[in-house]
């Protein structure tokens, strides 16, 4: 996995252990096979325990509880009214269609020319 660090002075910084072979400058390319994308998160007991153990701010936990309350209110409304249930289903279908056509279909294999920038520690020299 590669991420962009805001303070780096070059396009890509590699540790020596990441270099498996030494290509010529002409063939020094970096292939991006897949970009990051949205994935749902399920709020289960393990995640809640992790949030508590990592001392997540009270505002963040309050926001999570508010989101959960909102979801439960919508679910209860859907159980009581068929019209609301149909509206929610249509809304979810549109979210899926918009996500699929505007985000998921625009993942390409990208070849990026990388400027050489290696970092070595004293132990590796």
UniProtKB/TrEMBL annotation:
Catalysed reaction, written as an equation: RNA(n) + a ribonucleoside 5'-triphosphate = RNA(n+1) + diphosphate
Cellular component GO terms held in the UniProt record: nuclear RNA-directed RNA polymerase complex
Ranges that cross the membrane: 93-114
E.C. designation(s): 2.7.7.48
InterPro entries the record matches: RDRP, RDRP_core
Keywords: Membrane, Nucleotidyltransferase, RNA-binding, RNA-directed RNA polymerase, Transferase, Transmembrane, Transmembrane helix
Highest taxon of source: Eukaryota
Family matches, as Pfam families: RdRP
GO biological process: siRNA processing
Gene Ontology molecular function: RNA binding; RNA-directed RNA polymerase activity
Domain annotation RDRP core: ranges: 9-87
Recorded family membership: Belongs to the RdRP family.
Listed name of the protein: RNA-dependent RNA polymerase
